[in-house]
Specification:
Elements lengths: L3 E12 L2 E13 L4 E5 L6 H8 L7 E6 L2 E2 L5 H8 L2 E5 L10 H11 L4 H14 L15 H13 L5 E5 L7 H18 L2 E6 L2 H7 L2 E6 L2 E7 H6 L4 H8 L9 E6 L10 E6 L8 H9 L3 E11 L2 E10 L6 H10 L3 E4 L6
Parallel strand pairs: 3-8, 3-9, 6-7, 7-8
Antiparallel strand pairs: 1-2, 1-4, 4-5, 9-10, 11-13, 12-14, 12-15, 13-14
This protein binds adenosine-5'-triphosphate.
The site of adenosine-5'-triphosphate has 13 residues, from strand 1, strand 2 and helix 1.
Amino acid sequence: MSEIVIENLYKSFDTKDGKVEALKNVNLSIESGDIYGIIGMSGAGKSTLVRCINFLEVPTKGRVLINGKSLGDYTSRELRKQREDIGMIFQHFNLLMQKNVLENVCFPLYIQGKSKKDARKRAKELLDIVGLGDRTGAFPAQLSGGQKQRVAIARALASDPKILLCDEATSALDPQTTSSILALLKDINQRFNITIVIITHQMSVVREICSHVAIVKGGEVAEQGTVEDIFTHPKTAVARELLKNDVGDDGEEKRGTTAGGKEIIKSGEKIRIVFSENSAFEPVIANLILNFNEPVNILKADTKNVGGVAKGEMVLEFAPDCTKNKEMKQYLLDRGLEIEEVSEHVD
Ligand SMILES: Nc1ncnc2c1ncn2[C@@H]1O[C@H](COP(=O)(O)OP(=O)(O)OP(=O)(O)O)[C@@H](O)[C@H]1O
């Protein structure tokens, strides 16, 4: 049984301008111990979806089941109890600015009824876990963004949750700090077997730590699957768009390079090649050009670290007058590369 099941979920809001359908027939299953990404552009419905998972938003229709039990069937008291199993962190940390780091983490422990002594002991342990054991007396204003998010993570862990929801938790952070927070989340996931649901608009976040992902567009799930599958075989335009915006680990997307020593070629057949494992670094394209004595235009090339494995993609364009497209594609297939036709514009 999946730990989190979202069944035929709808959520609409009545506004003065009419009804907004934020979620439409969303179906998802998230397994225990998974790190699950929910990605989409702004306004896609991600925050509404994640808020439905702990019933901060009550769905208009459909069900959310945690370990087989529908949250809609709980009394408000049972729901409060269930929510202790679901921690949450946010983009803007939501810390108590007048309280120091230790007291911020103690706060939920006091609410649980812990004594001051016990709460402080536990809060200190949690701050050690997030690497802030030496900053207990600091106030939030004295901390960097990454440190504030670490405090928020420690606070979220105070109720020993089984699930941690992260709503754009790294969106306010620079790339290096983002990586360190993602590494911390992965560590927490593995050490404490906490299921993590990450809401983000950045594909780089998904590929760095998620094992599964759902792509949300216009309140609907456009595509879902393993991260590896979505990266290597994106089926929808929105998935391709999000991938296109994801800058590779080398920090640059290489576009518009001309291979083959000829002028940039316009509007020939375009194909997308997917590299995996070590093939990304082999001189396949150079050999292709030498073999067929035909130029190809490299419209885009990216290598990325997907869950620790080097992956890459390239979009190639054949010369408009090239007559060897078929053989050249076969050459690439024979070398174990996956190729697909690209119909949309590549910029
Ligand atoms: N409380 C609300 N009242 C009215 N409309 C809302 C409310 N919350 C969300 N919406 C609308 O629902 C849609 C989805 O919003 P949501 O915040 O879930 O998207 P999102 O993908 O998280 O976007 P972003 O990344 O910009 O935060 C939007 O059209 C938004 O305006």
